[in-house]
Amino acid sequence: MIHNQMSRRRLLGLGVGLGTATALSLAGCGSDDEPTATGNGGKDYTGPKVDLKLWNGFTGGDGDIFKKLVDQFNGEHENIAVTTATYRWEDYYAKLPGAVSSGSGPDIAVMHMDQMATFAARNLIMPLDDVASALGLTEADFAPTVWQGGTYNEKRYGIPLDMHPMGFYYNKALLQQAGLDPEQPPTTKDEFTAALTALKGAGIQGFWVSPFPFTGGMTAYTMIHQFGGSLFDEAGAKATFNADPAVEACTWLVDMVKQGHSPGNVGQDADWLAFKAGKNAFNFNGIWQINDAGKSPELQWGVAEVPQIGSQKAVWANSHNFTIVKQRRDDPNKVAGAKVFINWLSEHSLDWAAGGQVPARKAVREDAKFAELKNISTLAPELEYAAFPPSKPGIGDVITIFYDSFNEAVLGKKPVKQALDDGAAKADKLLEDNRKKYGS
Description:
By secondary structure, this protein is α+β, with helices and mostly antiparallel strands. The chain has 2 domains: 2-161 and 319-347, 3-Layer(aba) Sandwich (D-Maltodextrin-Binding Protein, domain 2); 165-317 and 394-438, D-Maltodextrin-Binding Protein, domain 2 (3-Layer(aba) Sandwich). It has helices at 2-14, 21-24, 61-76, 89-102, 113-121, 129-134, 144-148, 172-177, 189-201, 213-226, 244-258, 270-276, 289-293, 332-347, 349-353, 362-365, 368-371, 374-378, 395-410, 416-438, and strands at residues 50-56, 80-86, 108-112, 151-152, 155-156, 159-160, 162-171, 282-286, 301-304, 315-318, 320-324, 358-359, 386-387. It is globular, with a radius of gyration of 22 Å.
């Protein structure tokens, strides 16, 4: 189970892009006059039976829930049969371009928000504006950042299913051991600092900082936005993760090690395992860990919104979207059936929320039944200030450079400013290469 979680979550943080030889060997960007498949945008399908292949990366507990939903859909639609293939996310995005090129790819692909622009630029997925139009979906139905993240070059390529932010996990038993209120986790920088001091006095290293993308890099991403910075400029054309707010944010995290609140070399996933073992009190981690924490009955824990350490609220987040994959020769019946499935699953996203995701649709989030999913719904307000990756082709590979820079800073290989300066220089070069490669 740990291996599956690591595989899945690492991609959530890494945002691994399409900088592979397979991807670059594909045809160039599609033109504006390429045909979009016909149909009524997913309202219904009355054609002959179609068999659809769907790829996803849900290797954890959410995979079981996803499969049950697919089975339910198949039971309700005699003329559409969906079969799923599940891959680890790090294999998924590398495998997909070659499969499409050879004609063995899926009809529907689940895709993270920060990947869609890359696949759209490579002409591997098709526009879905007609789906949004036919179903009456607008930005008002979603959080603006989630809705906007599904577009590229003013065309919509993804229908949002969910958003998955970081959350603040706290060990109630350790808080009580340090003389703190176990039901009142810190919400501000001062409260967080005071709690760490109390924990340290009780012999507890309260907040382990991982040097790895998951979860250290995602935490650094969060803090940079909280301190008023960003990884890139507004156009996504230049790296800004070496600007003063980013340096201040990363320095705050590195100081956790220097001040003795964290070991100096936390292994991959060791921060979460230590949290469950009662060795640290606080952990910033993905919403999907809620179900994993619930499997440890001896663990006294809670989850809350990430504390505001900087001048504003912000939190790393990503989103799963449904996309329709372009084929060598598109079958209008299959495309129409795929749109029906996407609409159906989107409408059933309350059931999907049980897998540890916040539904993308506003109406579902406001449903009283969603509020009953106590821990998951606790993190839903983060959607309003979530910091999503920019929708730019190849951006995942550039974010990886930031994660590598943060790794060097946490491990003490370079001073924080130097590590971020060196990384930003590499990132700017890759951003320029991406503009040439993708034509945007």
